[in-house]
Every structure is written in C-alpha cells, then in structure tokens.
Specification:
Elements (H helix, E strand, L loop, with lengths): L3 E3 L2 E3 L1 H11 L2 E5 L6 H16 L3 E5 L24 E5 L20 E4 L10 E4 L6 H11 L6 H14 L10 H12 L4 H9 L4 H12 L2 E3 L4 E6 L1 H7 L21 E7 L4 E8 L5 H6 L4 E2 L3 E7 L2 H18 L8
Parallel strand pairs: 3-4, 3-5, 5-6, 6-7, 9-10
Antiparallel strand pairs: 1-2, 8-9, 10-11, 11-13, 12-13
Length: about 325
C-alpha cells in the first residue's frame, strides 16, 4: 500500500487506520446489507478487539444477521452508543450500507476493505485489493492495536478469510492468506468445526432452493457461460431464508468448461442482483463494471432494473463482449 502524507510526514495507510481507532473511545462499526462471513467476521473481530482495549464498540447492519453466524457475536452485549468514529467494514460503496443505516452514509470516518472497486466514500480508506478478505487486513489492524488475538477473535477472522476464499480454493488465496489462517488457528480458531459448519452443512430449505435454481440452468456461448435464476417465488416455495442463498452463485462456475458462472437473483420488484464468477480467462469486475457494478477479478456483482429477461440479456451481452475481447471461441447460444 502506498504511503500518505500527514503533517508533512509519510505515514503508512495501515498505521493511519490504527491511529484513528486508537484515538476513538466509542466506535460504531457498519456491515454491508445482506451480510456475509467477511463483513461480519471483520466487524465483530474488530469490535471484540476494541472491547479488550476498554473502548465502547457496537456492530450494526441494515439486515438481520444470518443465524449460522451467531457464534461470531455470542456472549456480546452491545448497547446503543453515540460514536466518535464510524467504521465501515468490507463495504465498497455507500449503496451497500443499506437504507436502514442510510443516516451514517456520509459520516463514515474509516473504511477497511479489500475490494478494488471501493469508491473511497469514507473520510479515510484502508483498502488492499490483494487481500483475499477484509478479515486478512483486519488481522494486521488488530495486531498493530496491540491486542492479543484470543479464540473468539480468531474465530471471527477465520470465518471471513475462509468464506471469501472458498475455503482457500479461490484464485484470491495468496501465501499471506494461508499464513494468516495458520496464525488464527494457532490463536485458537476452531477451523475443523467452522469448516464443517460453513461449507458442509445445509438446511433442507436451502437444498430445495438449490435444486430449483439448478432446474433453471442455461448454457450460452458454446458452454462458456452458465446461468441460473433465483426468484422470490423460489425462495418462498423452498422456505429458505434470503441469507441462505449465500454460496449458490458459485455453483454455475463449477461446471466443466464454464468460464462465466452467472446467477440472476430477484431482489425487489423489477430489480435483479447479478453475481458473476469467472475463470482465469475473464475478468468478472470488468464485466460487471459495464453495468455499474464491480468487485474482484474472479467474483463480482451488479444490479439491473427491468424484467428478468432484461437482467439476463444485459449480463449475457456484457459477458459476450468480454469473451470476444479475449478471443475465446463459442457460439452465440
């Protein structure tokens, strides 16, 4: 990360972020809407670290926390606070904060994130796009705060590290990712229990939703792209919670020969969230950027307004352009 100037002196962004946290006594930590393991793990990891320093801290989200992550905040009693610092954890843009926390959108003093598409809306932004997860960065922040990582903090940070790297299978996994994971296990992260719970345990409702999503599977461009659909009707019929759709967008990209795995998920009426997972030949972030979204090279997303067919055609056209740009062979359908 490049250095910055403060009072005429060069300061590393990591040190600046730690200074902001050290100077604050009451810290409110925001997580993004539709919370996942990384936003919750990094936020509660930081929250627990600040509490160990004797500070007051609280984590909030516009949406309910998924039940499967209850262990992350187990035992914490967090009261309402009047913050002197608001921190956004794993939130690339103000739109991801959600309507329920919109009052904080222009008051974020520090953002800690790993998305290269971060819009730098905060007073100060610590972003490292080479990190597999925000939890990877947060581990460094907590260490520089002088907090000894205990098993509770380790579980929080391991959760985000594992979920955002696909249990260390995705292309964003680096040697530092694995070193950080090893350190967290040494500090008490229960990796065996967490891996089982996060990657090998599903509710019946989620499996039913996954079955229906797979029934919608379409192939395009000679099999280079695979697309599935998740509608609100499917979610209602399956009995699954909205949070249980997490992980399903990675399924189309697992199919042999597929370079672009696309999931089109209905949100509000006339609004669809598109999740894109790509192989090494395509850049998911570049594709989604054409539709106003962003993310990482191998995993990105965007939102499209209109009908379901509009959403499908929009992302397929963007994928087709990238396929042609890369000189990849494939029929139109």
């Amino acid at each position: 990360m490049p250095q910055i100037l403060e009072n005429g002196e060069q300061v590393k962004p990591l040190e600046k972020a730690v200074k902001l946290l050290s100077q604050a006594d009451r810290v409110l930590i925001l997580t993004h809407k539709s919370p996942d393991g990384d936003t919750l793990g990094s936020a509660f990891g930081l929250c627990r670290a600040l509490l160990k320093l004797g500070k007051t801290a609280r984590v909030v989200c516009a949406d309910p926390f998924p039940k499967k992550y209850n262990y992350i905040f187990e035992g914490l009693k967090l009261d309402e606070i009047q913050p002197d610092l608001i921190v956004a954890s794993d939130i690339a843009s103000v739109e991801l904060i959600g309507d329920g926390l919109a009052q904080y959108a222009d008051k974020v003093g520090l953002c800690i994130d790993h998305h290269p598409s971060n819009s730098e809306y905060a007073g100060f932004t610590l972003v490292d796009p080479k990190a597999a997860a925000t939890c990877e960065i947060m581990a460094e922040v907590i260490a520089l705060l002088g907090v000894e990582i205990d098993s509770n903090i380790a579980d929080c940070l391991y959760t985000g590290l594992a979920t955002d790297s696909g249990c260390f299978r995705f292309s964003n996994t680096t040697p530092n990712t694995l070193r950080t994971a090893a350190m967290l296990i040494e500090k008490g992260a229960d990796s065996i229990r967490l891996n089982k719970m996060l990657f090998e345990t599903d509710s019946r409702a989620r499996l039913e939703l996954q079955r229906m999503a797979l029934e919608s599977l379409e192939y395009h461009f000679g099999g280079k792209a695979a697309l599935i659909t998740i509608t609100n009707e499917m979610i209602e019929k399956s009995g699954a919670l909205d949070s249980e759709t997490e992980g399903i967008p990675s399924i189309p990209a697992r199919i042999e020969g597929v370079e672009a795995g696309i999931t089109v998920k209905e949100k509000d009426k006339g609004v669809y969230k598109i999740s894109l997972r790509t192989g090494l030949s395509l850049n998911a972030s570049d594709i989604c950027a054409e539709l106003g979204g962003g993310g990482h090279a191998a995993a990105a997303g965007c939102r499209v307004e209109g009908s379901l067919d509009d959403a499908k055609q929009s992302i397929l056209k963007a994928v087709k352009r990238e396929i042609e740009k890369q000189g990849m062979k494939g029929e139109n359908k």
